[in-house]
Automatic annotation (TrEMBL):
Protein name: Helicase-associated domain-containing protein
Molecular-function annotations in GO: helicase activity
Domain called Helicase ATP-binding: residue spans: 202-358
Gene3D superfamilies: P-loop containing nucleotide triphosphate hydrolases (3.40.50.300)
Secretion signal span: none
Key words, A-Z: ATP-binding, Helicase, Hydrolase, Nucleotide-binding
Domain of life: Bacteria
InterPro entries: ATP-dep_DNA_Helicase (IPR050615), Helicase/UvrB_N (IPR006935), Helicase_ATP-bd (IPR014001), P-loop_NTPase (IPR027417), XPB/Ssl2_N (IPR032830)
PANTHER family registered for this protein in UniProt: GENERAL TRANSCRIPTION AND DNA REPAIR FACTOR IIH HELICASE SUBUNIT XPB, RAD25/XP-B DNA REPAIR HELICASE
Lineage of producing organism: Bacteria, Bacillati, Cyanobacteriota, Cyanophyceae, Leptolyngbyales
Coiled coil: none
Length: 453
């Protein structure tokens, strides 16, 4: 067995990849695998990545060849890569694009790479129910309203579709990005922000127009959204995770584009207006009076002829919005996020309904270039008093976390840190309100909760 000491990767048979952070080739290895491997955890010395079907298909959608993925792994391994892993990557990667959705005049078609695959899909119940007439050995008609759910079912069957059916044209919206912002500061997109928007739009071709841009927090995802709007030049619906985000988008649109104030509207609990650029929250759209009731605000999706829908913080997209998004596949769709990982495991729905990952810049790269602030993390472990140790030992499991979290010895540590960092802006985040109230009393600092106006 050959061994290359300076290489950084150890590849395991379950397609997990271990990266030795202190290896001399660690940075090169990280850059090589980032397009097709998901970072799972990153403690001090060994970072863990996972190569999944979805991570492979995202890389394939971005144009990466299977051979390049395998070569990247082999170039950076300490020990030889298990041959089974190479075979799995090859098999999974070759599946992307075996099914293609196209438009023929006013009809949607699903084309398969060969007859056996067409037979397999026609006998797969979850796929077959969204196939209309079989037009030839390898071609099926598809109802326009089933475009999204068909893509979901094909992904579930392991044959993700490449959607080349294109988009309808929304109402025109003329705007430009300002070289000097309204506030008087120069405004220039960073190269990676330009590249993100271009990777999404792809000069208006059917290969672009849908997908997700992954940039770390603080990298200016809103600027990418502005650039995409400027490229599309059509009415745009922007969905965000909070009213605070709505107001932030509104400020940036007015400051950095030539749009007048009356071209931007807010659709929220406070105001239900629409305009060429309309901003709304996921919460207002997913509201319904009862568990089985209708979603009254879904009418916003039909209020105007939208040419672009932007999903901010797409990893927080609630399930009801997925449902309506499945019906909006003829509209251009841009997802913005710092991570593709979702708590509910619906990354596949993002891929199928919003689109594949179009551009990704690791936080370490932008940190190294000075585009985002460097982060220094320190963990301080604090022992309990003897009495609280006994309280913890006899408590029910669900209460043990609460007892540990509210360790009163943390108060002195917080006080010490505040003294050490005096003069800096400081935010203290806690899990439980009682603990935060105690800290607010101790430090005489303001407390922000859900009840804060």
């Amino acid at each position: 067995m050959s061994y290359v000491a300076e290489n950084a990767l150890i590849i395991q048979s379950d397609r997990s990849v271990l990266l030795e952070v202190h290896s001399p080739r660690a940075d090169a290895a990280r850059a090589a695998i980032a397009p097709f491997a998901e970072l799972i955890k990153s403690p001090e010395h060994i970072h863990t990545y996972q190569i999944s079907p979805l991570s492979i298909w995202n890389a394939r959608a971005a144009g990466m060849l299977v051979a390049d993925m395998i070569a990247a792994l082999r170039d950076h391994v300490k020990y030889p890569m298990p041959e089974a892993v190479a075979q799995e990557i090859s098999a999974l990667g070759s599946r992307y694009g075996l099914t293609v959705i196209k438009r023929d005049d006013n009809r949607l078609l699903l084309k398969t790479a060969d007859v056996p695959l067409a037979e397999l899909l026609s006998r797969t119940n979850e796929v077959a129910k969204y196939l209309a007439d079989r037009l030839s050995d390898q071609v099926f008609a598809v109802n326009a309203g089933d475009r999204g759910v068909l893509k979901q079912s094909l992904l579930g069957a392991g044959y993700p579709a490449e959607d080349l059916a294109g988009y309808v044209t929304g109402d025109a919206l003329k705007l430009e990005l300002r070289p000097i912002s309204a506030s008087g500061a120069p405004f220039v997109l960073h190269d990676y922000q330009k590249a993100s928007a271009e990777a999404f739009y792809q000069a208006g071709r059917a290969q672009g127009g849908s997908g997700v841009i992954v940039l770390p927090c603080g990298a200016g995802k809103t600027m990418v959204g502005l650039a995409a709007i400027a490229q599309v030049q059509e009415n745009t619906l922007i969905l965000t995770s909070s009213l605070t985000s709505v107001r932030q988008w509104q400020r940036e649109l007015l400051d950095k584009t030539t749009l007048p104030p009356d071209a931007i509207a807010e659709y929220s609990g406070e105001s239900k207006q629409t305009a060429p650029i309309t901003l709304a929250t996921y919460q207002i759209l997913s509201y319904r009076a009862s568990k089985d009731g209708e979603f009254p605000h879904f009418q916003l999706f039909k209020a105007r002829s939208w040419g672009l829908i932007i999903y901010d913080e797409v990893h927080l997209l609630p399930a009801p919005i997925f449902r309506i998004t499945a019906e909006l596949q003829a509209r251009r769709r841009l997802g913005l996020t710092a991570t593709l990982i979702r708590e509910d495991g619906k990354e596949g729905d993002v891929f199928a309904l919003i689109g594949p990952k179009r551009y990704d810049v690791p936080w370490r790269e932008l940190e190294g270039q000075g585009f985002i602030a460097a982060a220094e993390c320190t963990e301080i472990r604090i022992s309990q008093t003897t009495a609280r140790q006994m309280e913890y030992a006899v408590a029910e499991k669900r209460h043990q976390f609460w007892i540990a979290a509210e360790n009163p010895r943390k108060h002195e540590v917080v006080r010490s840190l505040l003294q050490k960092e005096h003069g800096h802006r400081i935010l203290i985040i806690g899990e439980f309100l009682d603990q935060l109230k105690q800290l607010a009393t101790l430090t005489e600092l303001p407390l922000v909760t859900g009840k804060t106006p």
